[in-house]
Structures are given as C-alpha cells and as structure tokens.
Amino acid sequence: RGIWKSTDCGDSFARVNTGRNAAKIDNGSHVSMVIDPVERGVMYVISIYGDGGLWKSTNAGVDWDNMWTDGSELTRVTHNFSDSISMDPTDHRHLVVGMHTNCEAPYNPTCEGVTTDGGATWTVVKMPTPGWQEGAGPWVIDANTWLDAGQALWLTTNKGSTWSNVSPVGRPFFSGGEVETMPIARGADGTYFLSSQSGVVRSSDGRSWSVIPSSGGRTVGLAMGNGNIYTSDQ
Asked: Model pTM?
C-alpha cells in the first residue's frame, strides 16, 4: 500500500504519497510503474484495486491525480481496471496502458489506452485478442510500433490500427502485464529481449522474434547488466 522511496540503496524506506489523494493511493495495489526520464518528478502507477485506474504524480510521488477522468474514453474500461503501463523509449509523453478486464463497445472485447501528451488526452485502440488475458500487456518500441504480449505476441506498426501475430513458431504465452514493469530490454547492439513461458526471446528489429536456446522455461522477470541477462521463474 502506498508509494515508498529509499535514498540509501534500500536500507530504509519512507512513504512519499503524503499529499493530494494520499488515502486513495494507500488503498490501491500498485503493480506497474514508470518514471519519466525527462521531466523530473513525473511518474505513473497502475492501481489494480482500490480506486483503480492510472495515477500520475508531477512532484515525485507526493501528490497524485487519476487519469481515468469523466468524459475520457478510458471510462469504457469496466471498473477502471488496468494492470500495466509502458512508456515509449523515444518519447516520454507517449504511453500505452494494458487492461485487466474486457472493454465496452466499440472496443470490445479487449483494448488498450494510448496517450501522446503525458495523459492529458487518450485514445483507445481495439486489440485482436478474443478476451482479457491474465498477465498480458504492452511493450512500446516507438511512436507507431508496439507489442502486446499475452497468450501470443502481437505487433502493431500503425498505432494499433492493425495487428499481426509475431510469436515464434510453437512458442505461445508471454508475460507483458502486471508481473513485468520495466521498459523493453535492449542489448548494446540494439537487440530486443522479452521473457516468455518458453524462455527468453529476442529480435533485431522488434518485428521478427526467435527463442534463445536453453534460456529457461516459464520466465516472468528479466533484467540486463554488464553483458549478462538475468531471468526469474514464476
């Protein structure tokens, strides 16, 4: 409950949501977070329970406002139930939000929310999946291109207007939702990496993917550092 911060490498933590809507932030379960690398103090969190929705702070977590406002297309998502957020690595104001429930018409059965102005305005895009999927969610590559990782790996190159299935042959089931909250991983040579329930998959362009042999099984966490890849098994 709440948003906590450490300034001593994790030895101690202090609750930072002490301002506007502090009680509502305390009441939620925050399963996905992104911090703006350009605008100091701006951060977003998904509150999967409590008031739900997507919350934004512009002062490093002290005050919070819900992006699910009256009149927004996002209100077509039942109970403000979202579970994942991804920030475009090429544009910090472009974010895509994945849902933890089905969507209402005309975006049914499933959809994602898209903003290009840091949450001031939103559009909703319809997904190709037959229904909401546990753990599914977006990975943004650039302004036009992002992935939706769930029971299959879906790709759009035109801002969600159309989608294609780019799953490696015989390798379904990815985890792009609430169990992974980091940006899409990239190696020093630009290679993209994602975890799946068949191990780690990679792509040179974000469009064509293959499984790294002997890279594990049902991986849900992935981190990189000093030329190494680390994964965790659900």
From this structure: 0.90
